[in-house]
């Protein structure tokens, strides 16, 4: 046993063997957890999509049955959040697929012996915008989208112009 001074009162719980302090580690920043690869992550946790879909259907059913206005608003907000998350996930997936297809094209060109050409950020943005317009045209919503954009730009232009009071 450890020798202790008689001048100090003895603590109630005395540590005879020193206990090692647990070191907490964050798997997001630790090398032991491996590297984050979104493709592998999506494949591993793809079962969550079906669970989310079931939960969304349950919320929709509850929303139809619900009579309480406060509860109804709460459920509506939850449903909106779920749909927004779903749309964001689809958008991210499309972006990933587009990047993968560009990489595949570059690999093919490299196999043929050509020098790889990497798109700038602005070029990627232009391609994304062109794809968005093509999608809107297919769905028939292009005209309404362009009208909204024109109105928005007109309002911005009016704001930038000097007011009549100053003239």
UniProtKB/TrEMBL annotation:
The keyword Acetylation is assigned to this record: no
Residue spans crossing the bilayer: none
Compartments, record wording: Nucleus, Nucleolus
Region Disordered, residue ranges: 141-167
Source organism phylogeny: Eukaryota, Metazoa, Chordata, Craniata, Vertebrata
Superkingdom assignment: Eukaryota
The name this protein goes by in its record: rRNA biogenesis protein RRP36
Gene Ontology annotations for the cellular component aspect, listed alphabetically: 90S preribosome; nucleolus
Pfam families xrefs: RRP36
Chain intervals with Basic residues compositional bias: 147-167
Function: Component of the 90S pre-ribosome involved in the maturation of rRNAs. Required for early cleavages of the pre-RNAs in the 40S ribosomal subunit maturation pathway.
InterPro entries per the UniProt record, alphabetical: RRP36
Coiled coil: 52-139
Any GO BP annotation: maturation of SSU-rRNA from tricistronic rRNA transcript (SSU-rRNA, 5.8S rRNA, LSU-rRNA)
Subunit structure: Associates with 90S and pre-40S pre-ribosomal particles.
């Amino acid at each position: 046993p450890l020798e202790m001074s008689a001048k100090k009162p003895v603590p109630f719980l005395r540590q005879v063997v020193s206990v090692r302090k647990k070191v907490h580690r964050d798997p997001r920043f630790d090398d032991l957890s491996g590297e984050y690869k979104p493709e592998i992550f999506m494949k591993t946790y793809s079962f969550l999509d079906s669970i989310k879909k079931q939960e969304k259907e349950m919320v929709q059913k509850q929303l139809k049955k619900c009579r309480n206005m406060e509860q109804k608003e709460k459920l509506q907000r939850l449903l909106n959040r779920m749909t927004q998350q779903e749309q964001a996930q689809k958008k991210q997936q499309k972006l990933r697929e587009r990047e993968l297809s560009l990489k595949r094209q570059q690999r093919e060109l490299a196999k043929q012996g050509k020098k790889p050409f990497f798109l700038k950020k602005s070029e990627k943005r232009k391609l994304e915008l062109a794809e968005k317009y093509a999608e809107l045209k297919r769905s028939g919503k292009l005209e309404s989208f362009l009208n909204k954009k024109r109105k928005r730009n007109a309002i911005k232009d009016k704001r930038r112009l000097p007011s009549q009071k100053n003239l």
